[in-house]
Known about the structure:
Blueprint: E1 7-11, H1 15-26, E2 30-34, H2 39-45, E3 47-51, E4 55-59, E5 64-65, E6 74-79, H3 89-96, E7 97-105, H4 112-117, E8 125-139, E9 142-157, H5 163-175, H6 187-208, H7 212-217, H8 219-238, H9 247-257, H10 264-270, H11 277-290, H12 296-309
Parallel strand pairs: 1-2, 1-6, 2-5, 3-9, 6-7, 7-8
Antiparallel strand pairs: 3-4, 8-9
Helix pairs in contact: 6-8, 6-10, 6-12, 8-11, 11-12
Amino acid sequence: MDYTNARIGVLGAGAIGAFYGVLLARAGADVHFLLRSDFVAAREQGLVIEHAEQGELTLNPAQVYQSAADMPPCDIVLVCNKTTNNAEMAPLINQVAAPSAAVVLLQNGYAVEDELRAQLPADRHLLAGLCFICVHRKAPARVCHQAYGGLNLAYHSGPAADGAALAKALSTRFKAAAIDSHVLPDVTTARWQKLVWNIPYNGLSVLLDASTGELMADADSRALIAQMMAEVMAGAAACGASLPADLVAKMLAATERMPDYFPSMYHDYAQQRPLELAAIYAAPLKAAIGNGVNMPQVQMLLNCLRFKTQAED
């Protein structure tokens, strides 16, 4: 499919949704945003990205909505909410997604597509979207971008005879908006690759009240991160993911190069929002154990997060 003139819907225009949506819109795409708490600010001042390289980028006016029922049918739907809200997302997606639309989950975690697939019509394409970016919501309708911005894709399911070709067509659309994008061979590999970074840094930032720079500067916490990454790599291999042997070294090096950063789970905890414990920790742990591999340090991290938040995943 040719997505050159596709209408794009962004569900959940927080940091991730606003960042990619604004870049796409400024590159000429027809982008429509579903917001709630930021709706008034976005309607009055537009959406603003404080971009690390490009300076302040403003989309004003922005096509913003409070109700999915008011949005036009969209050919590409970017689902950018937290996985803790997924129970309510299927009806919204089905209201917005045009027939044969591509639904892309820009979410963290493992197997997040599986539960949603059963709630979508058979003619919708479902893809994993893996964001490699340092970005956070600074104020209503204002996002601070610190580094990176890649968006990789993997086809999960749908009517496409060649899912990789459809993912490549979407990737080409993102590249046209100066978004670095690549197609990954399968969803399992894509999800585990992101978890190698997300599992240690997200949880440890909450438990230790520390940024990535602080975690990397301390020899003990840095060693613990590397050990957890190795556990995740073993779990990934047991589940059939083909990750490069040097991935841990590359991720540690990339983290050392990035600006000091507080991961998304840190911001969720600071703002007393539910943490994505089920998607980022419980689901991959269950999958790894089911394939004969234990991840004891990751399990301990999850147990500590449950204790700290008194949460059930």
